[in-house]
Amino acid sequence: MKRKLFIGNDWVAGKSGKHIDCIDPASGEVFDSVPAGGPADIDAAVSAARQAFDRGWKRTTGAERAKILRAISAGITANRERLAALETRDNGKPLPESFIDVDTIAQIYEMYAGLAEGLDARGEEALDLPGDAIRSTVAYRPIGVVGMITPWNFPLEQFTWKVAPALAAGCCAVVKPSEYTSLSALELAGIIAEAGLPAGVLNVVTGTGPEAGDALVRHPGVDKISFTGSTATGKHIMRTAAEDLKRVSLELGGKNPVIVFDDVDIDAGVEWVAFGAFVNQGQVCTATSRLLIHAPIADRFLKRLVEVAQGIRIGSGAAEGVKMGPLVSQVQYDKVMSHIAAGKKAGATLLTGGTRPAGLGKGYFLAPTIFADVTENMSIWTEEIFGPVLSVMRFEDEDEAIRLANDTPYGLAATVLSKDKDRAERVADALDTGITWQNCNNMVVIQAPWGGVKKSGMGRELGRWGLESFLEPKQKTRWLTAGSLGWYDMPAAAK
Ligand code: NAD
After folding, report:
1. 368 in Cβ contact with 291 (< 8 Å)
2. Rounded to two decimals, what is the model's pTM?
3. Which of 26, 35, 135, 213 has the fewest CB neighbours in a 10 Å radius?
4. Per residue in 279-300, is it b (16+ CB within 10 Å) or e — as a string?
5. Roughly what angle, to the nearest 10 degrees, separates helices 183-194 and 62-78?
6. Is residue 335 classed as helix, strand or coil in its secondary structure?
7. Nearest residue (CA) to ligand 1, atom 18
8. Rounded to 5°, angle at Cα 148 from 145 and 153
9. Helix, strand or coil for residue 386?
10. If you compute the radius of gyration of the chain from its CA atoms, what whole number of angstroms results?
11. CA–CA distance, 89 with 91 (Å, rounded to integer)
12. pLDDT in tens, 10-65
């Protein structure tokens, strides 16, 4: 099947006529294709978005937008089987996890419907000013046309984390999904149009980063770029967007630690660590990729962790009972394997994994991998791998654990496991990350702010913070007294 681009509520062929293959990562076989969009397609999409914005979307009330957001949520729920199956085919993730993604995005559109209504209730905020000469209020205006660039690890979620709050704020969007997993974005666009969204408010242009993505970042008609992806691409995008001072928000990579103290219940602790490291094949920006284990329990904990890792059922995401599917692509598989080779070469001890699991000859399957005897200067400890690879170091006391956890350029998420609630709280407060989890791991709370500090990005998604990132505060100040300022009569020293 040859898909089309979604521009102005219409399905249109890409101008270049070229396509990108969609590959099933469980088999390596091509099963679909999407247009390889480029600058001309981006131009058409941005102009559709600009027209929709100026024609009236920017003047809609929050209540009007909420009605459409709720209809989108209902449309997603009505199509949940189809969306989940497509996501698993395109990305490889286990089907139950695709269902969680579909149900979560339905909730996110609902949540932003409520927040859009909240904008009506907030109205213009009056400021409490001294004196009675002036009155200032703050109106919140949609930023305008937003270019959105998303990665391949959670295609439905990443699309929604940006599109739902942008629509709630009254913005128009041009989305460029990852070239590895574009299908669910196109499906969602169809569902969103059926929910009654006016033409041009949402547009989807598929294509590669250097062609379609770069054209979107450079387009003068775009007011803001909202990007999720690697730190390297994020830096490049920020530099390019600086040319015409576009607003930018960036959700980037991580090298997320979990600190496990010696008072944990070993089985529960192992499950949280394994979940954080291996869910979604470790292709999660907040994936646990560094384990800091308290020395007194290290041997027992690692023994159990290895047993659990070896018991994880791996296979096609569509197969019953599978907990880990394939990595997303050959490119990603090769990248992760090169990190594993670097770990071995540096002298880390491979406790388990590091290879293709037995019996899975085709597809991009990789066994959960754990390295022990890792040192601070090894690349498996310092660089984001974005695959099912966990590196382990031991620590003796709390201060050492905090120092090792924070010794990274990244600052996305960190986890602490300890029965001592005061200690968990203290350590969480000392961790330099945008997100901390205590006695759980990789929990996505859609009402809470999501994002990183340091080189993990800037800005926050989800919750009310996600909505604010698509609004500009506009100051409105009025002179209330009948007279003038009296500037001409001011004493010279005051002039
Ligand atoms: P990537 O940076 O390679 O690609 C992300 C997107 O950017 C894709 O759509 C790609 O086509 C586009 N792109 C690439 N080059 C571009 C360019 N020059 N101009 C414009 N667009 C360009 O990242 P990826 O491999 O798709 O995703 C994995 C990365 O995403 C990891 O680093 C991960 O940590 C990060 N991530 C972060 C979060 C978060 O919330 N912080 C969430 C998910 C993924």
Report:
1. no
2. 0.97
3. 135
4. bbbbbbbbbbbbbbbbeebbee
5. 120
6. helix
7. 210
8. 165
9. coil
10. 25
11. 6
12. 999 999 999 999 999 999 999 999 999 999 999 999 999 999 999 999 999 999 99
- The residue behind tokens 């001890």 is 349
Phi and psi at 312, nearest 5°, equal -70, 130
Q: Please tell me what DSSP assigns to residue 280.
A: G
Q: What was the pLDDT predicted at 495?
A: 54
Q: Which residues line ligand 1 (CB under 6 A)?
A: 149-153, 176, 178-179, 208-210, 213-214, 217, 228-230, 233, 236-237, 251-254, 285, 384, 386, 412, 452, 457
Convert the pLDDT of each residue in 165-216 to its tens digit.
999 999 999 999 999 999 999 999 999 999 999 999 999 999 999 999 999 9
Q: Is the dihedral of CA 312, 316, 318, 320 positive or negative?
A: negative
CA distance 166 to 208: 23
What secondary structure letter does DSSP report for 490? S
Name the residue with the closest Cα to ligand 1, atom 43. 285
- Structural tokens at position 378: 């090894």
Sequential DSSP letters for 93-121: --HHHHHHHHHHHHHHHHHHHHHHHHHHH
User: Residue 212 — φ and ψ, nearest 5°?
Assistant: -75, -45
How many CA atoms are closer than 13 Å to the CA of 361, on its beta-carbon side? 0
Query: What is the helix (H) or strand (E) element at residue 228, kind and residue range?
Result: strand 224-228
**CA 424 / ligand 1 centre spacing (Å):** 32
66 SS3 class: helix
Strands 10-12 and 5-7, bridge-based pairing: antiparallel
In angstroms, the CA 143 to CA 213 distance is: 20
Nearest CA to ligand 1 atom 10: 209
Residue 86 is encoded by which pair of tokens?
């497509």
Give yes or no for a contact between 6 and 204, defined as CB atoms under 8 angstroms apart. yes
Cα(170)–Cα(53) distance, integer angstroms: 8
Distance of CA 57 from the midpoint of ligand 1 (Å): 29
